[in-house]
Amino acid sequence: MTAEPSTPATPGPHAPAGPAVVGVVGGGQLVRMMLPEAARLTVPLRPLVRDHDEPVARVHPHVVVGGPDDEGLRRLAAACDVLTVEHELVDLDTLRALEDAGHPVRPSAATLGIAVDKVRQREVLGAAGVPVPPWSLVTSMDEVEAFAAEHGWPLVAKAPRGGYDGRGVWFVDGPGQLEEVLTAAPGPLLLEPALAIERELAVLVARRPGGQHVVYPTVETVQVGGICHEVLLPADITPEQDRRAGQLAELVADTVGSVGILAVELFVVDGQVLLNELAARPHNSGHLTIEASVTSQFENHLRAVLDLPLGDPAARVPAAAMVNVLGVGERDPRARLASALAEGCANVHLYDKAPRDGRKLGHVTATGPDRAVAAEQARRAAAALTGPEQETAG
Amino acid sequence: MTAEPSTPATPGPHAPAGPAVVGVVGGGQLVRMMLPEAARLTVPLRPLVRDHDEPVARVHPHVVVGGPDDEGLRRLAAACDVLTVEHELVDLDTLRALEDAGHPVRPSAATLGIAVDKVRQREVLGAAGVPVPPWSLVTSMDEVEAFAAEHGWPLVAKAPRGGYDGRGVWFVDGPGQLEEVLTAAPGPLLLEPALAIERELAVLVARRPGGQHVVYPTVETVQVGGICHEVLLPADITPEQDRRAGQLAELVADTVGSVGILAVELFVVDGQVLLNELAARPHNSGHLTIEASVTSQFENHLRAVLDLPLGDPAARVPAAAMVNVLGVGERDPRARLASALAEGCANVHLYDKAPRDGRKLGHVTATGPDRAVAAEQARRAAAALTGPEQETAG
Prior knowledge:
The structure is a homodimer. By secondary structure, chain A is of the alpha+beta class. Chain A has three domains: 84 residues, Rossmann fold (3-Layer(aba) Sandwich), CATH 3.40.50.20; 60 residues, Dna Ligase, domain 1 (2-Layer Sandwich); 189 residues, ATP-grasp fold, B domain (D-amino Acid Aminotransferase, Chain A, domain 1, 2-Layer Sandwich), CATH 3.30.470.20. The first copy, chain A, is 30% helix and 25% strand. Chain A is built from twelve helices and 17 strands. In chain A, the strands form three sheets. In chain A, strands 9, 10, 11, 12, 13, 14, 15, 16 and 17 form a nine-stranded antiparallel β-sheet that branches. A four-stranded parallel β-sheet of chain A has the order 3-2-1-4, with helices on both faces. In chain A, helix 1 crosses helix 10 and helix 3 packs antiparallel against helix 4. The two termini of chain A are 23 Å apart. In chain A, 55% of the residues are buried. Chains A and B meet through helix 1, helix 11 and strand 16 of A and helix 1, helix 11 and strand 16 of B.
């Protein structure tokens, strides 16, 4: 806890005639990475944090304290001109009420309502012509057996809402395992076949309220147990798959009416590009845009929610790689900085979070002429941050 | 003024086992541009600001209030583990006393003592074998006439201390003008011939306390009336001049024993590379390293003063250009953001300063395969920020 009081909506007498005040639901690494871009553009940022120990509150003087509930969201709205989010676990009824009262919410409650609901995603986007994997919403073993009869085992069961980083997703080999999941997870389950995934891709779209948008280069994501470990640019796909991925991302953004960054995660299965899921906010798959793109996802998110002209999403480097720094026990990357920096060519980003096993504590990006070389540089620095070496603060 | 109290040296109970606390004398754009790098590396930064309206205080929760005088410097030292500067107009006696008491000051008072004194620069560096233009320290018109007899008119007269951005420098055509300067400016004057400058260059060196250092690619600076207007990468020089510029910068850094970033400004005269002057801190000529280098000057300054391994200074792009946004009357770049962003490919950096004629209010950087194209992009966006168009906030 720091000693600063939160000071929402108190722009002093020298407040510039600049951009409007942006309130952001959340105080984690995503809004922390918005700070430099906000400062460069003199965008006043007001994150909504649960307490002063969240990553953004350590380095930003103006925060609003509260949760993403009715009380917190109304407090945030009173402190900003435009409200946006760094995560989707938000009280959507309050956001709708704020919109009805004329407060800009970007992305809208309607877009967020689709982003948080995997079943609605498949319904809405499937109807719009976006190819989605076969799926069924089941509540009974009879329905499971019917789906398995068509698609075979193994299957993937997903909680329709609230899952992330591998939580709320179960790979099941047969009816016994699935019955356990149905018993443990209350409510209906989304079933999909266990696809033979050749590649996982992500495409970011930055979109303004009027629909003007820019599409980032397709990246390849490497997931382990549902958690993103690496992101690689360029994706190792055919030009036709690349074109298709961008086209689908645009179609998804238009269909859900996103404003700000929309991250569209895709599968390549049997050579075809299918929708996996989406996130209506800056996304882990876009962290490498800080170094690799002319305009980072964080800058374009702010530009889009402020309805300012969007920046060029093109890569300024031939290749880049981002490797997440995932917690290993109690090891603290902040105490291992020197050994990571000694690795040389990589850019270390730490989120200043207390270490915990599996937690995203930071990431490392490297750029260069060759994707494999960049990935190796980023991996070495990331490994040094959670490695077994002795802790020595710089 | 904002409502936050300054909270030096109060790292809460969750303070990480990370890098040491860095105190920085100054609250302007240079320390503001250190903030993102400090956040990424979890370096606790404590700028010394005169008031809460300085550019850094608007976006950073932890500042120490005071001037660069004995009282302020001691207050800053008490709040940090390592003390550094964003400008050289500092009470050097206090810095020496702090050093004597065992407090790390990086760069040292000795290095800063050379950086602030153009005569000592020429003495110390000339003696070390760095080629400097012909010079003389004069107090009387007899001495002026003697120097003019050897080098001819016109001459350049410089105040030995305190000049920057064209202040404290006079181009004089003959004895009458020089007599006016001698009368107006008390104390001795540094005289130099008016050189036929072919190019102005700058080379940044980042150097650790033990002498380990990295050298940034040579850039070309475009000065108008002693004020930097543009910085271009690569410099339009021969490979031999490039090699020589880097070699001289290393020699200067070793000779003055710099720690942190040292900016070495050079002239090309008659094909030869000569020392112009130096700055022992991050420098305007290095702003393009944010986008163009693997490691920015701001990150390597922090790494160096913390004695952490230095990052790669190499360019990750073939070419880059930085154009300063200089105040034009009362026009406020913050209110012209939308038209600048509409220019597309450039990265806009605003310092959130009140507009004033000629004041550095921001800069714009563009990168790409071609230096001329990047310069044109950056110029267009910079011009839009101070152009005559109607003010419309985003």
